[in-house]
Design goal:
It is a single chain. The chain folds into 3 domains: about 55 residues, no CATH class; about 110 residues, Penicillin-binding protein 2a (Domain 2); about 375 residues, DD-peptidase/beta-lactamase superfamily (Beta-lactamase), CATH 3.40.710.10. Helices cover about 35% and strands about 20% of the residues. It has a 5-stranded antiparallel β-sheet, with helices on both faces. Strands 4-3-2-11 form a 4-stranded mixed β-sheet. Helix 8 packs antiparallel against helix 20 and helix 14 packs across helix 17. The chain is elongated.
C-alpha cells in the first residue's frame, strides 16, 4: 500500500508545475484507491454524523417550527382583532367636510359676500366679496382654516375676523361634517364616504341698501380730496324699525385683501394716517359741536327753564367776571351776532349765546346746568353704546365735574366748561351711530329705537325706549330744525322734491389753536311724516373751510330724488 501512495504523490508533484489542479487530484475516493478498506473508512474524507448531533439538529428544527407557528397563531388568531383594526386605521382615515359659509346680502338681495365655486386644496371654499366702496369695515373679512407644520388642522373653520363676518359668525358658520377616506400604501386617496353631512351656514340679509351707501361714499371721498378732510362717515336709519338703510365709511379696506393676506396692501393700510381700519360710524369718537343743541333744547323745555317764545339778544358774545382775575373778563363768543332769537330761531341759526345762557345760566336767565345737560344727553343715548353686536362700539364721553376732577387731576369745574358743553364743545365725544339714534328719537317725538344692521323680517324684536317727554316739546324743536333748512345754517338741504329738517355743527378740534374742524349735519325726512333719520360727519378739515357735511347730504338727496324716489314716498302720503 505504501508503494501505491508514493506513486500517487509522485504524480501530483509532476503536475504541480502546471498550476492547475483538478478535483480528482484532491479528493480521494474508492475509485482512485480500490484497495482501501471501506469498513475502516480508508480513502474517505467525509465522516457520517453521530446520533447525538442528529438529535440536536432535529430538536433545533422542531423548536424553530414551534416558535414560528406560535407567533403565526398569535398574529392570525389570538390578536387578529387588534392588528386588523390597526391595519384598517392605516387604510381608512377620518377627515373634515367643511361647511359652506352663509351669504351676506344687502336689503335688495345683492350678494356682498359669497363662497367661491371651486373647492381649494384644503377642502374649503374661499370667500368672495363684492367690490363696493365704503362697505369693507361693515362686511369685514374671514380667516381660513389653518394647518400646523405637520399638515394637521388646528383651526377647523373659516372664522369671521371683523364686521358682519365676526359679529354674526355663529349664524354664518354652519356645522362641519365628517367623512371616511380610503388611502393606499402611497397615501393616495382611493375613495371617500361621507357619514355626517355638513350643514350650510344661514344667509344674512342686511338692512343696508348698497346703492345708497356707495353714493354716500363717493360724495364723501370727493369732498375729502377737494377740501382736505381726513375722512368721513354717513348713516341713514329707519326710525320705525331701527334698520340702517345706508352706512358708509371713508376710507375703508378691501375685505378680500385682508382675507387673502395681501402683504403689500396690508402695509399700505397700516401706514395710512387716515386710518382705514377705523370703523368710523361705530368706533369713531368725534366732538359734535352744535348738533347737540336740539337735545339741550328738549331738556330746557322739559325742565321749563325758558319759554320757547322768549328772545335772548345775541350781540356776538357774553362776558362774565373771571374769578381768578377780577380785572379781566372771560368772553364766550358766538360764531356771529344774531340779534334777538327765540328757541326756534336759535336752533335755525345755531346761536351759541342762546345756548350758553339756557345751558349754563347768565345774569337773570337760569340755566339747565351741567348735570341737567348730562342728564338729557344720556337720555337720548349719548354716552351709551348701541346694542346691536356689530354696532356695539364706543360709548363716548359726557363730561361733568367728577369726570374733570379725575381726568385733569383735581382741576375744578368752571362755568365756562358748562357753556362749552352746552354747545357740544369742551370734551364731549360722540359716535355717528349715537347721533343718528338720538335724531331718530326727535323725529319719533320721544321714542328711541335701537339701530340694527339686519333687515327687519318680523322675527326680531324692535327695541324701543320711551323718553316720557311731551310731544309738544319735540314739535318746537322740529320746527326750529325745519327753519334751519329754509332760512338757517342747513339751507343747502332746501331741495325741491323733499322736505328735510336738519341741524348743522362745526366742532373746533385741536390741542391749542383749534386749527381743524369736524363738520356735521343731522336731521330727518320727510319733515311732515318722518321716516328716516340721518347723520354725516366730515373729519378733521381746515378751520377756514366753509364746505362740509351739508354739501355731501345735499348731493345725496338730489341723487335720491332722481334715482331712488321710493325712499321719499312718504311725502305723497
Amino acid at each position: 500500500m505504501e508503494q501505491q501512495i508514493k506513486k500517487i504523490l509522485k504524480g501530483v508533484k509532476r503536475k504541480r508545475g502546471n498550476n492547475v489542479i483538478d478535483p480528482d487530484e484532491i479528493f480521494l475516493d474508492v475509485r482512485n484507491m480500490p484497495n482501501f478498506n471501506r469498513g475502516r473508512l480508508e480513502g474517505n474524507i467525509e465522516r457520517a454524523l453521530g446520533k447525538k448531533a442528529g438529535y440536536g439538529i432535529l430538536a433545533f428544527a422542531v423548536l424553530a417550527v414551534l416558535i414560528f407557528g406560535g407567533r403565526l397563531w398569535a398574529l392570525q388568531i389570538k390578536n387578529y382583532g387588534i392588528y386588523a383594526a390597526r391595519s384598517e386605521i392605516n387604510r381608512l382615515r377620518q377627515a373634515i367636510v367643511f361647511s359652506e359659509r352663509g351669504k351676506i346680502l344687502d336689503r335688495n338681495g345683492v350678494p356682498l359676500a359669497i363662497n367661491g365655486v371651486d373647492v381649494l386644496d384644503g377642502g374649503y371654499r374661499d370667500r368672495l366679496y363684492k367690490n363696493i366702496d365704503g362697505l369693507g369695515n361693515i362686511i369685514g373679512f374671514v380667516k381660513y382654516p389653518q394647518k400646523d407644520k405637520f399638515g394637521y388642522y388646528y383651526q377647523l373653520q373659516t372664522v369671521g375676523m371683523d364686521g358682519v363676518e365676526k359679529a354674526y359668525n355663529a349664524v354664518l358658520s354652519g356645522k362641519d361634517g365628517r367623512k371616511i377616506v380610503e388611502v393606499n400604501a402611497l397615501n393616495q386617496t382611493q375613495s371617500e364616504s361621507i357619514y355626517q353631512e355638513a350643514e350650510v351656514g344661514a344667509d344674512i340679509k342686511l338692512a343696508i341698501d348698497s346703492r345708497l351707501s356707495k353714493v354716500l361714499y363717493d360724495y364723501i371721498k370727493a369732498l375729502s380730496a377737494e377740501r382736505n378732510f381726513t375722512g368721513g362717515s354717513a348713516l341713514i336709519m329707519d326710525i320705525e324699525t331701527g334698520e340702517l338703510i345706508a352706512m358708509t365709511n371713508y376710507p375703508d379696506y378691501s375685505p378680500e385683501a385682508l382675507a387673502e393676506g395681501d402683504v403689500e396692501l396690508l402695509k399700505t393700510y397700516s401706514s395710512d394716517e387716515r386710518k382705514p381700519y377705523l370703523f368710523r360710524p361705530v368706533d369713531g369718537l368725534f366732538t359734535p359741536g352744535s348738533i347737540v343743541k336740539p337735545f339741550v333744547a328738549i331738556g330746557v323745555l322739559n325742565e321749563k327753564i325758558i319759554d320757547p317764545r322768549k328772545e335772548i339778544i345775541s350781540t356776538g358774545s357774553i362776558s362774565i367776571p373771571n374769578e381768578y382775575d377780577p380785572e379781566r373778563e372771560s368772553i364766550f363768543r358766538d360764531w356771529k351776532a344774531h340779534g334777538a332769537v327765540d328757541m326756534r330761531r336759535a336752533l335755525a341759526v345755531s346761536s351759541d349765546v342762546y345756548f350758553y345762557e339756557v345751558g349754563g345760566g347768565f345774569e337773570k336767565q337760569p340755566g339747565l346746568g351741567i348735570y341737567g345737560i348730562e342728564k338729557y344727553l344720556r337720555l337720548f343715548g349719548f354716552g351709551r353704546a348701541v346694542e346691536d353686536p356689530l354696532l356695539r362700539g364706543e360709548a363716548g364721553t359726557i363730561p361733568n365735574p367728577e369726570w374733570k376732577d379725575e381726568v385733569f387731576d383735581g382741576d375744578p369745574w368752571r362755568i365756562g366748561d358748562t357753556y362749552n358743553t352746552a354747545i357740544g364743545q369742551y370734551s364731549v365725544q360722540v359716535t355717528p351711530i349715537q347721533v343718528v339714534r338720538a335724531m331718530g328719537a326727535i323725529a319719533n317725538s320721544g321714542v328711541i329705537v335701537e339701530p340694527t344692521i339686519l333687515k327687519e323680517d318680523g322675527t326680531q324684536p324692535i327695541r324701543k325706549i320711551q323718553t316720557g317727554i311731551p310731544a309738544e316739546y319735540f314739535k318746537i324743536v322740529k320746527e326750529g330744525m325745519r327753519q334751519g333748512v329754509t332760512e338757517g345754517t342747513a339751507a343747502a338741504l332746501n331741495i325741491p322734491g323733499t322736505r328735510i329738517a336738519a341741524k348743522t355743527g362745526t366742532a373746533e378740534i385741536g390741542t391749542v389753536k383749534k386749527n381743524y374742524v369736524n363738520s356735521w349735519v343731522t336731521g330727518f325726512f320727510p319733515y311732515d311724516r318722518p321716516r328716516y333719520a340721518f347723520a354725516a360727519v366730515m373729519e378733521r378739515g381746515p378751520h377756514d373751510n366753509t364746505v362740509g357735511a351739508s354739501y355731501v347730504m345735499k348731493q345725496f338727496f338730489e341723487w335720491l330724488v332722481l334715482n331712488a324716489p321710493e325712499y321719499l314716498e312718504a311725502e305723497a302720503e
